[in-house]
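Comment thread on ticket #2218

A.B. wrote:
> Attaching the input chain for the structure job we discussed in standup.
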Amino acid sequence: MMLPADDLPFMLLAFAYGALLILLPSFAGEVSPSYGDGGVMSQAPLSFVAHDPSAPYDGAPPPITGEECLHRHDLVVVSAAAWRTLLDSREDLAGEPLIAGWVDRGWPLVVRRFLPGEEPGLPLGLPLPPAHGKRRIALTLPRDALAARASPPLLRQAMGVAPAAWQPTLERLLALDVEIRIYGSLAWQFLTGLDYLTAHSDLDMLLPMPRAADAARLITALGAIEQAASMRLDGELVRSDGAGVNWREFQEGAAEVLVKTTDGALLLAARQFLDGARA
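C.D. wrote:
> Ran it. Output below, let me know if you need it in another format.
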């Protein structure tokens, strides 16, 4: 049966997208990231979602709403070809074996805020572990370098790599909300198997924003948990649009809070943020 000419582009697009979903696990989402010594993580892998290359993009910052939304702390897998092109243009990254093989190991990059005056593209970051200088490397890649994306790991996924002294605190946090996600040292140790955690590490959390009426109760509970914790609790209350505010600003009763998004950061009245006003 002959297809109408108008339907052919859509059929080709569907075929290409299906092929991407089949091939993607070989370098991204459904394979467990490797340990530095070649082993495989015992935790279940994150669920990466294939990026739709047909989504329109005009070089502006990633949208904060919609199906192709990217937020700060989201994880992305980029193509090996794009990674090689980037490394060829960044002499400052030469000689670091972890960076050279980062994408080949299946390790992700993290979405960050745009920096003032930064060129258009995807604003990404790569944090090195303490043994490799603890550098925080800012990268910008073209939109078409994106192969797959995932939300940050859940706290409950990473408990197995957390220090024993942290476990009672983690259990109390999970009793508050099982959907707490993490970034920072614990997240990267979970994702790569490399030694990111030290005796001085904080627990960096992303807490789903509760209803405005429940926010005060959550902040009070976090403060009580931290008093008995062996580590500092850092992190943000994060709304569904990706905007986040450090939970301590609410604990301190600030009238205005610093709201962080992919586009940047700005001050907003605390009540406006809690009520869902756009930053």
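A.B. wrote:
> Thanks. Noting for the ticket: The chain is about 30% helix and 20% strand.
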